[in-house]
Amino acid sequence: MSSNPVKSAVQKFGLPRIIIVGFFIFLVIAAGGFQMNLMQLLSDCVRRWGMFGILTLAMVPAVQCGIGLNFGISMGIVGGLLGGLIVIELDVARIPALVAVSPMFGMWVSVLVAIVIGVILATGIGYLYGLLLNQVKGSEMTVTTYVGFSIIAFMNMLWMLLPFQNGELKWPNAGKGLRNTISLSTSFSGVMNDTLSFKIGKFTVPTGLLLFMFFMCLLVWLFMKSKTGMAMSAAGSNPMFAKAAGINVNRMRLVGTTLSTVLAAVGIIVYAQGFGFMQLYNGPMMMGFNSVAAVLIGGASPKRARISNVLIGTFLFQGILALGLPVANQFIPEGNLSEVMRLIISNGIIIYALAQTKEGDGRE
Predict the structure, then answer these.
(1) At how many degrees (to 10) do helices 103-134 and 74-90 cross?
(2) What angle do CA 246, 250, 284 make, to 5 degrees?
(3) Residue 148 above 50 pLDDT?
(4) What is the C-alpha R_g of the chain?
(5) For residues 192 and 273, what is the distance between their CA atoms, to the nearest angstrom?
(6) What's the rounded Cα separation, in Å, for the pair 350 and 68?
(7) Which residues cross the membrane (predicted)?
(8) What rounded mean pLDDT belongs to the chain?
């Protein structure tokens, strides 16, 4: 008995993904129909794709090592934010020797130093995070969600106590604590976006940003093809077989969790430089959910994730967010549906993916 090829293709690609792709195409057509600046909107889609890509990429090692969808990338985001704050505090971008070469060079040094500091901090945080997840096997996604929320709540207190003295970081008029939104205009705002960027009509290509995202994807792809990466994937897909083959499953989970946390630290710095500011306090709270939704839209599952899932899913997710607000405002001028759509899309796709996983477990 031959199966229906159309039904088989729909099941393989996933009905929610078909709906998301169709909705994105509808938004593009609608934007053109309303005679909006479609090239500028698509340019914004590409810019957001590059900005958010590395945060979504952080899901790949987490899924492959066996801890599942890492809702707790806030652990790494905190490390990245601290790296950015330290760079602003030290005013690295305006060191005379760097500015003498060129202002752009100073900004690049600033963002790279922020990334290095963020990676160092995230490595330690990720190691401790991995030790915790090794103690709660089978409940990782629940634990990562609450750990992510907890670190944000803890940092809300710490942001008020850290001894930063730079006036760009502190509340004005002798206020105590760090500002809610930190401007990057004097440090590394838009440095990746502007590097080697060019225009095709009204369509802007942020070459430096896209090259950096692709470079990070290449590094992760090379790691996954290495001996350690393949051992990590084996430990995540079949722990019993991996253990029988002599692979230390706990160690591989620790490697994957740490790498995911480090990528989140890099990702938040790239994300912040694209917008031109960093958000502290509750700003990063839901970023884990957005990253999970993006990689799932791209075709990943709680058991398997690829680089292609990251690239496709991030573009669709961020593209809908970029096009959704202006198009929705044309349909309903008095309302703002962008946040509603984001919540429906991100939470809906997560529920669907988890339901499919449970269903699959039941069949087995």
Answers:
(1) 150
(2) 145
(3) yes
(4) 21
(5) 7
(6) 12
(7) 15-34, 55-88, 108-131, 143-162, 203-224, 254-274, 280-298, 310-328
(8) 84
Q: What is the domain extent for residue 125? A: 37-324+336-343
Give the DSSP H/E element, type plus range, for residue 262: helix 249-275
Taking a C-beta distance cutoff of 8 angstroms, is the pair 353, 302 a contact? yes
**212 found inside a domain:** yes
Contacts of 144 by beta carbon, 8 Å cutoff, 6+ apart: 67, 68, 69, 70, 71, 72, 133, 288
For the domain that residue 228 is a member of, what is the CATH number? 1.10.3470
Task: Give the position of tokens 């995202």.
Answer: 213
Rounded to a whole number, what is the distance in angstroms from the first to the last CA of the chain?
23
> Which residue is associated with the tokens 């005013």?
91
Q: How many domains does the chain have?
A: 1
Structure tokens given for 103: 């202002």
Structure tokens at 338: 């962008």
pTM: 0.88
- Domain membership of residue 307 (yes or no) is yes
Q: What token pair was written down for 281?
A: 């306090």
Q: Token pair 């989140």 is at which residue?
A: 264
Helix (H) or strand (E) holding 230: helix 227-237
**Would 9 be classed as within a structural domain?**
no
The beta strands (E) that lie in the chain are given as 181-183, 198-200, 203-205, 277-279
Q: Tokens 């790949």 belong to which residue?
A: 60
Token match 């944000």: residue? 152
The answer as to whether 80 is a domain residue is: yes
As a whole-number percent, the residues of the chain with pLDDT over 90 amount to 31
Closest CA to 89 of 114, 107, 109: 114
